Amino acid sequence: MKRENNMKRLMRWLVPLLALSLIAAACGDDDDSDTSAPSEQSDSDSSDSGGSDGDDSSDGESGDSSIGGSIEIMSNWGGPEQVGFEEVLAAFTKATGIEATYVSERDQETVLPTRIAGGSPPDVSIFSRPGQVQQFVDDGVLVSYADLGVDMSLLENHYSQSVLDLGTFNGELYGLLTAVNSKSTFWYKPASFSAQGFEEPSTVDELDAIIEGYVDAGLTPLAIGALDGWTLTDWFENLYVRVAGPENYNKLFVTHEIEWTDPTVVETMEIFADLLTPVDDVVLGGAAGANSTAFIDAFDQVLNDDAEIYYEGGFMGNFARENFPDLVGGEDYTFFPFPEIDPAFGAPVVGGGSFAIAFNNTPQVKAFIEFLASPEANEVWATTSEGARINPNSGVGADLFADPLTGLEAAAILAADVFVFDGSDLAPSAVGGDAMFTGLQMFLENPDDINGVLEFIEAAADAAY
Amino acid sequence: MVAVEVGKGQGLSISRLLKSRGEIWAGPGLLLLATFFVWPLLRTIWVSFHKGSIIKPTREFVGINNYTDLLTNDPSFLKTELPPWSALFNSGLWVVFFTVGVIGVGLLVAVLGDDVKYEKALKAAVFLPIVISFTAASVVFRLVFAADSRIGSVNALWTTFGFDSVAWLGQAGTANTTLIVAGIWVWTSLSMTLLSSAYRSVPTELRDAARVDGATAAQTFWRVSFPVMRPTVVVVAVTMIINALKAVDLVLVMTEGGPSASSRIVGFTVFWEIFNNNRAGYGSSAAVLLLILVLPLMWYQMRNAGLDGETS
Fold first, then answer.
1. What is the pTM of this model?
2. A410: alpha, beta or left? (left if phi > 0; alpha if psi -120 to 50)
3. Is residue A84 part of a domain?
4. Is B170 close to A291, i.e. CB distance below 8 A?
């Protein structure tokens, strides 16, 4: 009986305690919103020590070297690209004393919104979908560069207005475009070309003749990794900007002032169909083979000599190096730029890249953005031991790159008159990441039904803008 | 003296309260349940009446618009605008063929593999998939069904019989069926284990008696063993139907719902709309529809297990 009473006495304490701990756990998240508190303190620290340490002020470009504190940066780079970026971060820490933690998140498009919704975003994300950045801006979760107090003259000195425009949302600069790549590259094997007597085509008509030449020779000209629907959208974007020009390109993808059933789109799709038909002869495995092949596997098929040409971005060189270490990039395989269609529009570069966007307004974040924009940082990034990246920074020359293919790609990007961003990334995800994938896979299955495909995409676009 | 008595009285009343109101002891458990099940459920239903992103799911109240859009406008949910079938119909195929397959193969291995020489090795082999993460299994199966017969083992076998290799995952006509086959492989392990133990629990005297009375092996199984195993079969069936409806991983990794959205199922649509298309409300409405589909099954299973308070 006595023991039972003791038990009850214990419970009398235990139950409320348990409830309390639960409540405490539920409230735990709120701590994160205070992350600015310690950094503000370190800010005042730095201004104190800044007084005694006056010589640093002469080197304003890469920030105050005595700020200290820490910063968390998230992106989707893993493997060699992560190694390269971490070398850039090491240089940042050396220059500023700020501890930088890199979070590699392959599925960043999914994970980042969840972290934002949970109240604990990273300080900075380097993010590749401008359409989604626009949504972040609309949701009010980003800090503009002006609010951060970033030195705008630094940006204007080293970046073209068109690059800064790409990172401008609702009239304010929110993201610096970094780590760009060209998606206007056709990969081919020089030995295969010379065996057939082909030369690098400069127009799409010449490309079409090469494709037909391969078919006549009994070879399969193209491999396509259409399981990843974005490989098809990349094809389309390159063709469209060459048919209709960059202005219409923005009207189609960004503002939807041009509908998907517009004659310019129909014309583009007809050119696309001309190149790919008859699909069973032109594309390895026909439509079904392509639709079940992932983008890296498709390039492997070309390097395994099952097909001859592969269209995808400059970044494919990294995969070739990894999967085919015996082949020499630039000799056994290389690329030619996506050829012209209309001389009026020439050969614009369609490319991707990632925007450095800020979620927290701290001096560390400001210092990081300013460092990222400096020629020093971009030189480090161009010469890392692996995973070197191209940046549209005027302080970086194409000759810096150790790998000849990356140098070739950098030269193409830095020399391009027009650089347009990957259109499917500019469009709302329901269009650029869903309906376009589905529609273009349908098109591959049945290239005759262009109108059906375009009406399908237009229906999704009509609902999404 | 008085004070002591008061103290004693309080102690007694609390203990009496705790004794008479047993619900209090369920308090912490209920709190957890409310936090992690009831609140998210109500929240999902609330979000499904809104238009918004993952970050601001309730940006704009739109009433039942998401539901009407999903059921009348979505090209791949209910309508069959994209051949051959819609996500809802694909889910129906999953429910029927996946469930029958998982139970059928599970029963076969459980019963025919009982008391044979290599029983342990056989059952271990069938059980093995359960220790592999479904995502990893999905990657493996993408290779197993690869169109290139030098990579895909199914096509390697297929072509030795003189057929042309088939892009199982690349055609609208075969992608969903191929996913179902992969699903059966992944889940048979669990079903076999449960059914095997149910089969073991059938008293051998029953089977022996039936045999002595002249029943054939088939009759012994269907008339004697199966009725004893029936409750387990029902539990496995209901679990598998729910699995079929909410499956995401296999579809996402093996086909991304393609080609041309031909292999989408309801569970995939929920994930895809919320996380790929960033339409929290729209995806939530699909989730609520999914819940409505699953609810009768859950109720049936609970009743079957005697959890609804009534004795069964």
1. 0.78
2. alpha
3. yes
4. yes
